Model the fold of this input.
Amino acid sequence: MHFGFSYVGLIFLLMLYIPNLLWIKFKPQDYENFAARENRILLAFERIGEVAVTCLVLIFSDFNVQGWSAWLFWLAAAFVFMLLYEIFWLRYFKSERRMQDFYCSLLGIPVAGATLPVLATLLIAVYGKNIFLFAAGILLGIGHIGIHLQHKKEAEESTKPRS
Done:
């Protein structure tokens, strides 16, 4: 592992954070009610993972393209997942912005808004052969995907007709 600035990491973070900044203005209806009930352990995993991923992806130059090798397929796959993540956001912003819209799947990938960037993080870690980013991605995945699954379940239950 080599310390140094990662432009790949910067591109990844821009793809991650720009839609999230827009989301602040276009949150799903009733989101605050769901967020108030989040599991604190999952939230801790998510926050630790977010901070660690944000820092680690920028400070190792191993994530930059180092010339042609078969390892580039890992990086390419990571960017495919990030492109799908952008498609997820476009679909969300064009929707009615309900909780169901935010926690939907994309191409069979459940809770795509959480799953896709976590998968991309893990693949970038494999590409850069960086166990620290991989571990941070696992922590992020446990928290972020866990919270999204919790919200999805609550959203589905809130829309079921009462008998």
